[in-house]
Amino acid sequence: MADSISPQEYSTDWYETSVVLMLYVSAAALICYDYFLTLGSEVQHMWRAKISIATLVFYLVRYSAVFSTVFVILDIIPGRDMTTESIQPDDINVFNSACISCTIYVRAEMGMNFVLLCGAAIFSALRVYALWGRNKWVLIFTLALGLVNPAISLYQYIINTPRVNTLTIEACGVVENQSVEITAEISWYFGARASSVVADAAVLGLTWAKTFRMRAEAMECEIRTTFASIVMRDGTMYFLILLVVNIGGLVMNRPFYGSYTFAMSTWISIMTAIMMCRFMLDLHEECIIHRT
Question: Which keywords appear in this protein's UniProt record, sorted alphabetically (predicted)?
Fold first, then answer.
């Protein structure tokens, strides 16, 4: 039987749970809104295109985010299998019906986030690889940096156990592995965010270096092109937004670590998917404009 808690503890838990649910719901609403907003462009540029590495990466990032959202919604909707007594960290049984239900939802969501992050890392590396004249060392460098965050995130997903939260609002959640100290958990999350910042900064720096060179060459050849069009075409704006988002996640790591960790990770993953997919769609749009 769970120990009784004070009204103050209950109020704090209710507040934290409510904020987490709002973060999840808003992230789900954002990806759904963006999906239907850009569906027409996807049909025009992706569905009718030949299958290639670019289209496969697009589908990988796009639909891992969409399916992750489906499981996020299932996490927070009360269901028949989640009405049993709350599972305590010292009494976890994966064969319990409530635990099985949450295990499916939470693990599926985590898996989709992992696939999304890997897809985003692959796309960023391929984009820089193309900009730098198919330089394989640039590809290896950016891909290695980009895959650090998915690797750390996968480890975090493994060491945490899904559970049912019935203390306040019934929903699925996770419980930290008791053998792992909280300082170690914070360090892993901090490392994941820091690696994302480093990877985004590297991609942005390599992109800028090539952009300014292309701009200078265009001016020497008296080719009319605006800086804004180059920035849109090379992805500077998108990579810059992702860098700012990851810096925000890094800054908020310590003061908000705990209840909001996975909700913040979901938000960052959703923003990553939106920026990457919009960039790929804009690249196809730009190609059509230049052909005409």
Answer: Membrane, Transmembrane, Transmembrane helix
Please provide residue 78's backbone torsions phi and psi, each rounded to the nearest 5 degrees: -60, 135
Q: Which amino acid would we find at residue 168?
A: T
Sequence ranges of the domains in the chain? 7-291
Selection from 186, 147, 172, 185 nearest residue 83 by Cα: 172
Reported as a single tens digit per residue, the pLDDT across 28-77 is 999 999 999 999 999 999 998 888 888 999 999 999 999 998 888 877 76
Q: Which residues, listed in sequence order, are joined to residue 160 by a DSSP beta bridge?
A: 176
SS (H, E, C) the chain: CCCCCCHHHHHHHHHHHHHHHHHHHHHHHHHHHHHHHHHHHHHHHHHCCCCCHHHHHHHHHHHHHHHHHHHHHHHHCCCHHHCCCCCCHHHCCCCCHHHHHHHHHHHHHHHHHHHHHHHHHHHHHHHHHHHCCCCHHHHHHHHHHHCHHHHHHHHHHHHEEEEEECCCCCEEEEEECCCCCHHHHHHHHHHHHHHHHHHHHHHHHHHHHHHHHHHHHHHHCCCCCCHHHHHHHHCHHHHHHHHHHHHHHHHCCCCCCCCCHHHHHHHHHHHHHHHHHHHHHHHHHHHHHHHC
Q: What is the pTM of this model?
A: 0.81
Tokens of 231: 């920035």
Neighbour tally for 107: CB within 10 Å: 15
pLDDT at residue number 94: 43
Q: What percent of the chain has pLDDT over 70?
A: 68
Domain covering 7-291, topology:
Rhopdopsin 7-helix transmembrane proteins (1.20.1070)
Q: Which residues contact 63 (CB under 8 A, 6 or more apart)?
A: none
Enter the tokens of residue 132: 């730098």
In DSSP terms, which residues pair with 173 in a beta bridge?
Answer: 163
